[in-house]
Amino acid sequence: MNEVSSRMREHGADQIAYLVLMREIEDFLYLEADLLDAREYEKWLDLLADDIRYWMPIRKNVAFEDRTRETTDENDIAWFNDDKATLTKRVKQLLTGIHWAEEPISRIAHLVSNVRLVEPISRLGDGESAKVMCRFIVYRNRLETETDLLAGRREDTVRRENGALKIARRKIILDQSVLLAKNLTMFF
Predict the structure, then answer these.
(1) Between the CA of residue 17 and those of 21, 24, 31, 177, what are the distances in Å?
(2) Which of 119, 129, 116, 127 lies closest to 163, judged by CA?
(3) Mind giving me the DSSP string for 48-110?
(4) Would you say the C-alpha torsion 22, 28, 31, 33 has a positive or negative sign?
(5) d(CA 127, CA 18)
(6) Contact between 91 and 42 (Cβ < 8 Å)
(7) Overall pTM surpassing 0.70 (yes/no)
(8) For 120, phi and psi rounded to 5 degrees?
(9) What residues contact residue 14 under an 8 Å CB cut-off, 6+ apart?
(10) What is the pLDDT of residues 54-68, one digit of tens each?
(11) Using an 8 Å Cβ cutoff, are 149 and 137 in contact?
(12) Mean pLDDT, the chain, integer
């Protein structure tokens, strides 16, 4: 086998490994959406790394030349800036059945699309992480007439821990600067 054939074979194997990893990450994000839609919040918490940062900065209306300041920074105000302990408390509160903003409970659907790796890696070993971008739509309906449609993008860091994927960091960027929903009891 000559050197060119060997490189072509390695390149083909890397492409297949990349596609397999991408499919695994997509399935992982779709599973997460299904768990949230089914209100399986405790199982959803298992998908999160113990050191997670779950952060939703506030979007601002800025001039074109100030577009780098379109969201609040990490040390500024945010819709969410949670760790695993805070997320666990939010889940426990929802599961009491007496959460004022979720009685009666909302019907929620999470749609995830445009999933891509920021850097095209082909393998993710234990302890290694990858940056993943995606778009989302969260649809919520409450009572007879309350409907919310929230769209945006997520910037995730996904890490492999003991063979399983975990979300180690999530930055949620809503495509609205004024929150039109009455509350943010849902997860993104």
Answers:
(1) 6, 11, 21, 39
(2) 127
(3) EEEEEEEEEEPB----GGGGGGSB--TTS-EEEEE-HHHHHHHHHHHTTS--GGGSSPPEEEE
(4) negative
(5) 18
(6) yes
(7) yes
(8) -75, 80
(9) 122
(10) 999 988 877 888 778
(11) yes
(12) 90
